[in-house]
Amino acid sequence: MELPKPRGPLSATLVDALAGPPRTLLPLVNLSGDPLADEDLQLALHIGYELHYRGFDGVDDGWEWHPSRLALHQAAERRFESALRRLVPMPDPVPANEVPRALAAIVEADDGPPLSKYLTGRATLEQFREFVMHRSVYHHREADPHTWAIPRLTGRAKAALVEIQADEYGGGRLERMHAELFRTTMRELGLDTAYGAYLGQAPAVTLAINNLMSLFGINRRLLGAIVGHLAVYEMTSSLPNRRYGNGLRRLGFGADATRFYDEHVEADAVHEQIAAHDLCGSFCAEAGPEQTSLLLFGAACALALDARFAGHLLDRWAAGESSLRDQSSIANGRPLAGALGA
Prior knowledge:
The protein is an all-alpha fold. It folds into 2 domains: 9-86, no CATH class; 94-327, Heme Oxygenase, Chain A. It is built from 14 helices and no strands. Helix 6 (125-139) packs parallel to helix 10. InterPro entries: Haem_Oase-like_multi-hlx, PqqC-like. GO terms for molecular function: oxidoreductase activity. This is Heme oxygenase-like protein. Keywords: Oxidoreductase. It comes from Dactylosporangium matsuzakiense.
């Protein structure tokens, strides 16, 4: 994957630096605006996190753990996390045996825009293709952000997460890996299946969803949050995926296009119980009240950012506009003055 075009001074500083050998970056100051909607900030975060996944073509691997690059990333990450904590108040801890019920209550209280209903019954082919382009930013990494938690868990919770992730990775069979099934869907829709192909067209609201997973997954202090994030994803997956599959069938597509969504209808119905009880319940029985609060926080953040994403798509489509970024109007941006060292 090539480095994306910058969207402002922060991402321009980072892209410009990564194009060369590792060197000192000066700290950034005076970052402002809403971090959750900031195109520049969200792209810079995504680039920084990607260095811990597959990286970018031509970028020196030494940048992954370069101290000044990390300092730049952490400054942006702190703003992102602070915005999340303002958006979603930290829940009170609950006893471990009450965690599944508390997760169910968070799901029940969610009143996000009805994106899946729109896609199943009203979306045009072009709108459905746009939805898949947005989601490709995550589904090309399907399961990877949550896998960060495996070496940090123990006992029954670890076994439960491994069971879920084994299904996500197709039980070791390439053709059954969920990321590969999604590529088939993209291919059937006439889309580019390359990893990160639509990163440049994904707006901040899409990148924020993916950055949330990486924030929770990579930072060990937020272990509870990534566990809760996974649990709520499994608990809210089956019905929307049934609708997505039905939407593609309405548009005339067959089993190859819908297999990714159909697979999730069955698999996630099982994963829901494993995640809520075996994973989260066991984890909280050992982790203590702070991680229990983080677990519920992670779940609530997942639903909150998904609601913002759904609202963005439905609002743009209602206005007769694309939900993707207009590449013809994207400015390259300029590096922040004084941000690059020699």
